[in-house]
Amino acid sequence: MTTGTEPLRGVTRVTHLVPQTNRLRALHAVVRDREARREDFVLSANRIIRGLLDAALDLLPYEPRDVRTPVGQVYHGLSPATPVYGVSVARAGDSMESELRVMAPETRLGKILIQRDKVTKLPRLYYAALPAGIGRGHVLLLDPMLATGGTALAAIGVLLDHGVPEEHILFVNLLSAPEGIRAVHDRHPGVRIVTSSIEERLNENAFMVPGIGDFGDRYFGTDVPA
């Protein structure tokens, strides 16, 4: 797992790599293990996702909120300054949506379905359902993998079309390839990326190295031959 930022000089200012703790590396050792049982994969992936969502929520704007404690004292706290929305890119992003629903049940959720066209090899939008007023808040765009950046750019385009400023978009994922990060930042420099790993590169088949395989198949159990 890459812990440095050397391959990404010039774009790392809006790429937030969460602290590479021993605990995180232990969780990655499980989800990257090709022999991992599905239940272990899901449990470890969910723990990584929670940390990513906490990191992303911490980057949102907050405003002062004073509350009185049970002992009669005032605590000077904070509350979100704008509405927060979560938008998952189906299907793999559904895993992150479920964790966000548990962590912040008040968050309004949307969904985007994008698939690669078999002929043109380009991402194609099939479905989008977004909450009303989404342009007035900040959006956590949820997709575990950022490889070439094609799907991410298509999803960001949907949000922009619905009035969300790119500076209000946080793209949250488990693994990011340098090629995908560059693709997103070259087109939309205001979009911030929150990830738990910056990979080494993409291989000739556009899989991340060292990688994790197909996250959606492994998470939802559809990688088992019929």
UniProtKB/TrEMBL annotation:
One of its GO terms (molecular function) is uracil phosphoribosyltransferase activity. Pfam families: UPRTase. InterPro entries: PRTase-like, PRTase_dom. Keywords: Glycosyltransferase, Transferase. SUPFAM superfamilies: PRTase-like (SSF53271). Its EC number is 2.4.2.9. Residues 18-222 form the Phosphoribosyltransferase domain. It is an enzyme of class 2 (transferase). This is Uracil phosphoribosyltransferase.
